[in-house]
Amino acid sequence: MKKERNMWLDGIMGLAVGDALGVPVEFSLRDWLTEIPVQDMRGYGTYPVPKGTWSDDTSMTWAALDSLREGYAPNLMADKFCEWAFANKYTPWGEIFDIGGTTSRALRKYYYSKNPLTCGEAAEGSNGNGALMRILPVCLYCYSLEKNEKLATEDSIDIVFEATAITHAHLRSKLASALYYFVCCEVLEAYDMKTAVADGLKKGFEFFDKTPEYAEELKNYDRLRDVENFADLPHEQIQSTGYVVHSLEAALWCLLNTNNYADSVLEAVNLGGDTDTIAAIAGGLAGLFYGYDAIPKEWLGVLARCKELEAACTDPTKAEEHSYEYISIMPKRRLRNYTKIKQFLETILEKETDINTKTLINYMLQKNERNYAEYLEMLKDE
Ligand SMILES: [Mg+2]
Fold first, then answer.
1. What residues of the chain score a pLDDT lower than 70?
2. Is residue 263 located within the same domain as residue 374?
3. Interval between CA 98 and ligand 1 midpoint (Å)
């Protein structure tokens, strides 16, 4: 990380404030908002809720974060989502007031089937932004595990895909979350927002272009391949609906065309349409980049349950109940501790006398960490 700060607080509070700014004008037309733009926290409007009320985006983000305190497992996460959807936990005022159709159906299916891997909807029509809006904690979790050499990028993408699929199982939705993940990682490292977005998307496309089965679906995100051109598009060409492709584009476009936290989220809200979610998606990344201190104090001051939410923004891997074992719930995924593998290979190298084996081990040590794991598999087979 580029600065010593709490990325959980930066990102999640950035998301929550964006969400709350958008709630009163959700579904508003852009023309209407052009005349009376949102410039501050408002109350009421679309829903009968007071100023500072955040919605499902923040509720599910909080629930996802809470589930990660035990380690990543899709069933733990789905259970927390159900606590929100069916028991009003993680709500601003003790009562749920909005939930997307796809999310609602998926969680009801999970509630009865208890299978988090099959409850999400995979139809093409089920590509709303309901998973993208709550994927931030999963992104931060994977980022931190990759940093600590506990996951490879491939594993992180498996997790991001799987966590998305709890509600939104179509590949388009999974790719949106994963592209967001790549941008998220760059935002945490870069000193310039435009560079971060451009580099994140570039890495994302490079990663997915390797898989021919993704080619068709990736075409939906083609406008994001040329970030410079995309950033210069006039706002008439940016759609701000709840369709996942539109929402991701709109959020990134706002980040590319502003240079501080407040402007990023206000730009997102004033595009109209799915205001709260687009501002939440943009706000999470803006919070990560500009930091918690850049979020206007007067907005935090009226945010529902602000202190509780802030207190919840801690690193889940540091929680007492945290376990890496949960990650291995998927049979194809194993926790890979590259540092240990590297040490192991170095020990073999010391004792090894055969020159060919020594050359091979040296070669493996020079290659990236994933190869160590593959080499270990080879050793096991022999
Ligand atoms: Mg919402």
1. 1-4, 328-341, 363-364, 366-382
2. no
3. 6
